[in-house]
Amino acid sequence: MRETSGFAVPPQLTTRALLLGIVLSAVLAGANAYLGMFAGITVAASIPAAVVSMAVLKLFRDSNILENNMVQTTASAGESLAAGVIFTMPALVMLNYWEMFDYVWVTLIAGLGGLLGVLFTIPLRRSLIVEQKLAFPEGTATAEVLLAGSSGRGLTLLLAAAVVGAVTKLAETGLRLWGGTAQAAGYLGQSTIAYVGTNLSPALLGVGYIVGLNIACLVFFGGVISWHVAIPIYSTLFLSGNPALAAELAAGVPAADLAFAIWSAEIRYLGVGAMLVGGVWALISMRGTLWSGVRSGLERRPAAGSRGYDHTDHDAPMRLVLSGIVLFVVPISALYYIIVGTVGVALALSIVMVITGFLFSSVSGYMTGLVGSSNNPVSGIAIATILLSSLLMLLVGAEQATGAAAAIMVGAVVCCAAAIGGDTLQDLKAGYLLGATPWRQQLGQVLGVVAAVTVMAPILNLLLMAYGIGTPTPEQPDALLAPQAALMASVAQGVLGAELPWLMIGCGAAIGIAIIALDEYLRISRAAWRAPVLAVAVGIYLPLELAGPIFAGGLVAHFAARARRRRGADGDGTGRRNGVLFAAGLIAGEALIGIFMAVPIVLTENPDVIALPFDLPAVVGLLVIAVIAAAIYRVASRP
Fold first, then answer.
1. Tens of pLDDT, residues 592-630
2. Which helix (H) or strand (E) covers residue 185, if one does?
């Protein structure tokens, strides 16, 4: 659906599309701010926004698919910005640096960070989407949803898969008929932990199908490094060196609980170290295409409607991008000066912010391209940024309270930039598949960020006054835990108090270097498979249970492709497209039901509000996921 000069391009930046996208962005920002601080998760917004857009814009006869794409592009910024904010800024309340969320500070920090995220990803689009052709599972799924809804082809298949995904997620998470994870763990000897487990998410199964077996294997391999190698070694040899974890073992906690405690306190930092190395390597590897993207953006382009003009390759002007980055850094530097009171330190923090912001926006975009937004470890990116910022504050001799606050402020800007960066590239992938104009989508993301940031501080203050944030107290027994922000606070304090697991970070960096060497060997050998380090790093950082269904989905894609080749029945790609469409439906159904289930939870303040008074064994959930995997295989293996 790519038109060039001589063909009419349907309207995209219409008033009704932008208004609907702005309203949805603000609403989704508020909903995800609560959900994220309450449960530590946010709900992906692109597909729900696309569905709402199709329902509303169908009231207008002259609506088109690119308008719907503009709505979801603008609206999804709200969810992403909320994630960047709630993963970092509540830490300032937990550290008693703030008593309330100041409107000006929150708006400037989150807004400027989000806008920088949009700008940082503009030179990445051509490299990651056009040249490397990364999967971007949610972007691909969104495009399939919009195509099915606009043309009618495959709509029945998409709706059937969406119903399957929604009903399964409702039964698991809402009705609590079975647990969300099937796992088993035990002690070998006195302390050695053996753990196996898998999440029972249809959406993650769909993500695995879309990304394919190569990436799915690498994510799973990263999980194996953490959970089948590092945790058993740590629990056997080093547990006594951590009094808190040793006390849990002495208290007889279940092996699965102790495994997660070890992963949270120690092993996940292997992933942080691998991500730091992988992020730098990703930029080095992409240096040619990044520079090409910047250079081509600075060149004079053919005017719209002239010979050689291609609207699908028209990004925002690079001069405007570079000017915007400089313009946005100035007020951020002023805010850092207010905190630290020294011009030199404020400038140093700004330099760290710009470098890490671009680095981790690139990392976020690359990882969402590999494994999807659902598995984009934005919190890991924030940890890495706060680590570097805290080290800088330690070097200049800052007081612990001031240094921790400054580090979190830097982390907040970068976290918002990375969250928006990954989301922007997902939306641009959908636009690339649909034939949209990139600069129009980039403008839509800017408007979505502005809409979301205007409501963020009032929503945070409302939640703070209504529930409290942090550890529950007798005065606020229902305080929102904000788990990611609590982790950021502990990291900032830990660096300045010399309490972080630096050995784990160093070992993770060494693992990252080893994987880079392996990938380079595969490249030189012209191997069919590659080993991008960030795919392994995200597997190391995430719980093993999330890698299980992704790996299963990759296996389904592999065997379905073999079956099609054996039958010689997929010359036109119908089977492959049907498989992607079914996987997209699973992702869409789970995302939509996640939004709907959040409503009664918010209204009643009870996460078990619709839970039934009984539950089924985990094997039932495993059987359901197995049946869904078989359904994907059947759909994808036939023409």
1. 676 677 677 667 767 677 888 878 888 898 999 999 999
2. strand 181-188
Q: What's the per-residue H, E or C state across 15-31?
A: HHHHHHHHHHHHHHHHH
CA nearest 264: which of 291, 284, 293, 234? 234
Number of H helices, E strands in the chain: 26, 2
At 551, is the pLDDT very low, low, confident or very high (cuts 50, 70, 90)? very high
What does each C-alpha distance from 451 to 51, 107, 456 come to in angstroms?
20, 11, 9
φ/ψ (deg, to 5) at 416: -65, -40
CA dist 406 and 398 (Å) reads 10
Residue 142 burial by CB count (10 A; 0-12/13-18/19+): exposed, middle or buried?
buried
Cα separation, 506 vs 272, whole angstroms: 9
Q: List, for residues 389-403, the tens digit of each pLDDT value.
A: 777 777 776 677 777
Place of tokens 């790519």: 2
pTM, two decimal places: 0.72
Angle of helix 483-496 versus helix 378-395 axis, rounded to 10: 20
pLDDT band at 5 (very low <50, low <70, confident <90, very high): very low
Q: Got the DSSP string for 500-547? A: S-HHHHHHHHHHHHHHHHHHHHHHHTT-S----HHHHHHHHHS-HHHH
**pLDDT value at 514 more than 90:** yes
Whether residue 633 contacts residue 578, with contact meaning beta carbons closer than 8 Å, is answered with no
In this predicted model, which residue has the larger pLDDT, 13 or 478? 13
